[in-house]
Design a protein that fits this description.
Elements (H helix, E strand, L loop, with lengths): L1 H12 L3 E7 L2 H16 L3 E7 L4 H10 L3 E5 L14 E4 L11 H13 L3 E4 L13 H12 L7 H10 L12 H11 L4 E6 L9 H6 L13 H10 L5 E2 L2 E2 L7 H17 L4 H4 L3 E6 L12 H13 L3 H8 L5 H27 L2 E2 L4 E4 L9 H12 L6 E7 L2 E7 L2 H5 L4 H11 L3 E4 L3 E6 L4 H20 L7
Parallel strand pairs: 1-2, 1-3, 3-4, 4-5, 11-12
Antiparallel strand pairs: 6-9, 7-8, 10-11, 12-13, 13-15, 14-15
The structure holds cytidine-5'-monophosphate and zinc ion.
């Protein structure tokens, strides 16, 4: 990857002007900020824009804009086949187009990406790695570092991108090329890694709220119950307030933290949780020590959520400016967007509770129509799945989107361990209805035409049943 990053850096250095196009999520926004900072420092003129998705139509627009070099951040790999004759560089960790092509024809496309001197790509899949060893922001960082080793300070924003893309989730720590980035950040004094409670809100949430909103792991009796969380903490003798202000996790003494974690573990084990769940309480967490204590920009996960909130409400620019260092107006605006996001999420969850979940044989679903934004329905689905307490069924969620119906799918970890792959199912089912989809094993999505939702749900139901029965069957020889 470093070799490819160097080639891309060389191409950019020679460019008269660069058009930077970024995905409108936290990974794309942080990646765009890194790209732009590196180009600015190198004195290369450029423009930055954010796109909800990169498809044939948006590529047509970009062709008309005709930047001397186009730089795609956190997307592009899946659209290689639409980029012939374009001058482009791609920093993306998604599965390249070539994966969709039969194996015997694949080599040509990869070679096209690698050898065509007009499109250069750095992508972990080209090294046989998966999507979660590095993010789009991390790859933009690799290019920035190749442009100038002084750009190592940008590692902090790259770690925010990786964490926002939940690349630390499965193994409770970053891995692969992300660890190289982390090491750079530590050496540059802009990131710190430590083993700590993994729950969201270390810098900004009162401790009891942090427990109350815990989802991964779900803590029996405490998750979703603020009063029980206060009682739990008081019982083990933790002072919740200093004078009139609630204490946050980052303000606790090391001894208090240890006591809470150990009591949480005991609590979970005593209520039927297995070790696998309990150990998810703790993992590697990432701090940006140059940011002020108590600011969401100090914790990589909170920073990522703040930036995601901007992208979800069509204010990518605001998040971008925060990533570029604006701690004034843009940060204030980002706070407002995050607060608005939380309100929208609360009302969305209330609505879902009112309409309830429809149960099929192997999946459950709800249709949020226009009550939940298409950019938020995935989060709502994840929370609704947890709250349903159903560990045997994935959840599907529908919401109206400008280009049809947005589908989000989420699966309990147990089912993924049994072989469920929602990305494959979303891809397959959406194709049948003229839509498109993909994603990850446990979290995937699709866009389908309006009016096909019910049939789509039944198709997914059948595919889930098929995968799970298949998974239970004994292996039948080599593939
Ligand atoms: O939007 P949501 O959070 O549900 O998306 C989950 C995953 O599904 C994301 O990784 C996204 O890239 C993928 N997805 C996709 N095609 C879509 C929608 C989502 O591949 N049309
Ligand atoms: Zn990404």
């Amino acid at each position: 990857m470093e070799v490819q990053a160097q080639e891309i850096a060389n191409r950019l250095r020679a460019a008269e002007r660069v058009g930077v196009y970024c995905h409108i999520d936290a990974d794309g926004i942080t990646g765009g900020a890194i790209a732009s900072e590196a180009l600015s420092r190198a004195g290369i003129s450029h423009d930055v824009s954010f796109l909800k998705k990169l498809d044939e139509a948006s590529l047509q627009v970009i062709r008309r804009e005709a930047p001397p070099v186009a730089w795609f951040v956190d997307f592009g790999a899946g659209q290689l086949h639409h980029m012939r004759e374009m001058d482009a560089v791609i920093t993306d960790h998604h599965v390249p187009t070539s994966r969709e092509i039969p194996r015997e024809n694949r080599r040509d496309l990869v070679r096209f990406a690698e050898a065509s001197d007009r499109v250069l790509m750095v992508n972990p899949h080209m090294d046989g790695e998966g999507s979660d060893v590095v993010s789009g922001a991390g790859l933009a960082y690799a290019v920035a570092r190749a442009m100038d080793p002084k750009n190592r300070d940008l590692a902090a924003v790259a770690i925010v991108g990786a964490v926002a893309d939940v690349q630390d989730q499965e193994f409770r720590r970053l891995r692969g090329f992300n660890r190289t980035i982390l090491q750079d950040g530590i050496e540059a004094g802009v990131v710190r890694a430590s083993i700590d409670l993994r729950l969201f809100g270390r810098e900004t949430r009162p401790v009891h709220k942090m427990l109350q909103y815990s989802q991964d792991p779900w803590i029996p009796r405490l998750s979703g119950n603020g009063e029980a969380c206060i009682a739990f903490l008081l019982e083990i003798g933790v002072d919740l307030k200093v004078e009139e202000t609630w204490r946050t996790w980052s303000e606790l003494e090391a001894g208090e933290k240890r006591r809470i974690v150990s009591e949480l573990a005991t609590h979970m084990l005593g209520r039927g949780c297995g070790w696998r769940e309990v150990e998810r309480l703790v993992g590697e967490v990432y701090t940006l020590p140059r940011e002020p204590v108590g600011s969401p920009t100090r914790d990589a996960k909170e920073f990522g959520t703040l930036i995601n909130a901007c992208g979800r409400y069509e204010a990518a620019e605001v998040g971008y400016r925060v990533c570029r260092g604006d701690r004034g107006e843009a940060l204030e605006e980002a706070f407002r967007l995050l607060a608005g996001h939380r309100e929208h999420l609360v009302s969305s969850l209330q609505w879902i509770e009112e309409i309830g979940l429809t149960q099929l044989d192997a999946v459950q679903y709800f249709h949020a129509e226009d009550k939940v934004r298409d950019t938020v329905v995935g989060i709502a689905a994840g929370i609704a799945l947890q709250a349903s307490g159903n560990r045997q069924m994935p959840i599907l969620a529908f919401a109206y989107a400008p280009d049809g119906v947005k589908v989000s799918a989420r699966a309990p970890r147990e089912l993924v361990a049994r072989g469920l792959d929602l990305a494959a199912i979303m891809r397959e089912a959406s194709k049948r209805f003229g839509g498109e989809g993909g994603g990850h094993h446990a979290a995937a999505g699709a866009t389908i035409p309006r009016g096909t939702e019910e049939e789509f749900a039944h198709a997914v139901d059948a595919l889930v049943k098929g995968q799970l029965s298949h998974a239970a069957a004994p292996p039948s020889g080599p593939p």
